[in-house]
Amino acid sequence: MKTKFLLLFALLMSTAIGLQAQINVTLQVDMAEQAVLSSVNDTISVAGSFQAAAGFPADWTPGVVLLTDTTAGDSIYTVTFNLPAGSYEYKFLNGPAWGTDESAPNDCSPSNNGNRGLDLTGFAGTDTILPVVCFASCDVCQNVSIPDTVDVVLLIDMSNEDIADTISVAGNFQAAAGFPNDWTPGATIMTDTMGGVADSIYELHMTLPEGSYGYKTINGTAWGFDEGVPSACNVGGNREMVIVNDGSMMQTVGPFCFGQCEENCPAILPPIMVTFRVDMNNEILSDSGVFAAGNMQEPNWIKNRDVMTDDDGDGIYAFTYEILRGEYEFKFFNGANGDPGSDEFSETADFFNLGCGNGGFGNNRWVDLTNAVGDTVLPVWQFNTCDRSFATSIDNDLKTEVGFKAFPNPANTVLNLSVDLKRIEQIEMLDMSGRTIRRQGNINNTTYQLERGSLAPGLYILKVRIDGNDITQKVMFE
Fold it and tell me: What is the pLDDT of residues 47-57, one digit of tens each?
């Protein structure tokens, strides 16, 4: 009986040991088609769901499991670690941080998510060496030539700006230059130290593979303080640098004036007052108000701050900014909430294709004030269209001259009309097709109360004759 017990115990122990058996796993990646991009020399790493099981601190942590090129010059990097049987996912990184990671093709990504698969289910202590794969590929490398790398100095002229404590630059070059992630403000700092003299020319020294890159300079460390690159020198709204190995010791990009195309900042002209206007007569107004936002703000695109006003009740809302001459992108917002970045109430039209936007600024509205000679009042656009407001076709000089007002607008039961000078002679109400539905003449007074009567809720055209001239305005009854 004792012998049987000992045999059973030994069998159970053997099974338990087998279940806990560790497998030596070797991963191999060929970097022949890549430039080694890390700021730390030859830092090729791998991250995945295997790390904790292999004794590393945490899963999916880049820069911890490092690969080495054991045969110098063959570009094949390897790493070996112990794992229990099971299924895992992983991916290689051309550096120590996210942003340099590969995306594996679906043919070798079991979950079709860019991660590679490692299936050790049923393995019992057998060493496993995975085949060599080309970075970001399921196959071996095809010996494509590695892009040449170039020493680059990027320059920006900040002499026309109120300079923040930190000047940074962001773009799709950052990972290639060894910084953690592309398009990350505050991660890539520029300094004003060239030649040991502070001259407001900020520079960044780096090494980049040949290629084309987009970037923007930031007067600070966060989006909202980035430059607006004029249409004459932007590609997709950003600056572009094309890096070519021409045999020189260093390639210089810039200096460009912050927010301008010129290499040297021109003399600063005084700011101008610019009034942005929008016709809201066709809209149901939000209780929270009408707002304007864009890169004319400081910081830019704060969408719940600048409340537009309609002082004369004609449905035309306005806000005035003091800004420098240049190109600006903007939108109007019928409402706002507590989130300054929310697009919940934004115009949604494709303004570029409608004709009042600019391709470099995506689908936003766009205005060029580079050659403005002084304070400027912009045309009135109808909300969410590139159509000019019907209200702007009236004799605005006459309206101002006589002090005409129609209020409240929208109205409920009574619309009040008044003029400061002259007298109201005749009133017409038209529907939106231009058909006259009500007319009242021989008024000869400076005020008039227009009763709604049987008019249905909606938008109408009010035509008021004053001193033989007609003032036309959209009005709404709720």
Answer: 999 999 999 99
**In this structure, which amino acid lies at residue 242?**
V
**pLDDT category, 396, cuts 50, 70, 90?**
low
Cβ atoms of residues 424 and 462 within 8 Å: no
**378 and 400 together in one domain:** no
Examine the domain organization and report whether 402 and 379 are in the same domain: no
Q: How many CB atoms lie under 10 A from the CB of residue 249?
A: 6
Domain with 294 in it: 272-388
pTM of the model: 0.47
Q: How many distinct structural domains can be found in the chain? A: 4
CA–CA separation, 460 vs 281, rounded Å? Answer: 9
Q: Which residue has the tokens 């791998």?
A: 46
pLDDT digit string, tens, across residues 82-132: 999 889 999 999 888 888 889 999 899 998 899 999 998 876 667 888 999
Strand bridging mode 149-157 / 201-209: antiparallel
Task: Give yes or no for a contact between 230 and 359, defined as CB atoms under 8 angstroms apart.
Answer: no
Indicate which CATH number applies to the domain containing 115. 2.60.40.10
Within this chain, do residues 97 and 160 fall inside the same structural domain, yes or no? Answer: no
Whether residue 195 sits in one domain with residue 161: yes
